[in-house]
Amino acid sequence: MLNSAQVILPIDWVRAELYCQITGESIESIYAHIRNSDWAAGKHYKRTGQRTLWINIKEAQEWIKKQPHVETVVKASQKALKSVPANDEQACA
Q1: How many CB atoms lie within 10 A of CB 57?
Q2: Where does 1-93 have alpha helices with state H?
Q3: In the chain, where are the structural domains located?
Q4: Which of 2, 25, 31, 51 has the largest CB neighbor count within 10 A?
């Protein structure tokens, strides 16, 4: 994480290494967002060289805001499982 004495300028694009320091997200998770097409090239990330990856902080934050809360997803899954009828032996006969 960043030292509290460091100042971040109001910029949109930062190198992936700095993004990881700012957010605590790992570089592996960034590559997973890219690999899984969660993030769009040119919008969320940009490559400007063979080993230069930039992250748009504002767009990454907007993507995070749109993600469902884990609690919401888990509750919906549990509710769906409860609505599935129990294995009725008469229905199988």
Answers
A1: 19
A2: 16-23, 27-35, 57-66, 70-83, 89-92
A3: 13-81
A4: 25
Euclidean distance between CA atoms 2 and 24, whole angstroms: 9
Phi-psi region of 42 (alpha: psi -120 to 50; beta: other; left: phi over 0): left
The residues of the chain scoring below 70 in pLDDT are 1-8, 73-74, 76, 84-93
Q: Are 56 and 39 in contact (CB under 8 A)?
A: no
Query: In what order do the strands lie in the sheet containing 13-15?
Result: 13-15, 52-56, 45-49
Report the CATH fold assignment for 13-81.
Multidrug-efflux Transporter Regulator; Chain: A; Domain 2 (1.10.1660)
Spatial distance between the Cα atoms of 45 and 54, rounded to a whole number of angstroms: 5
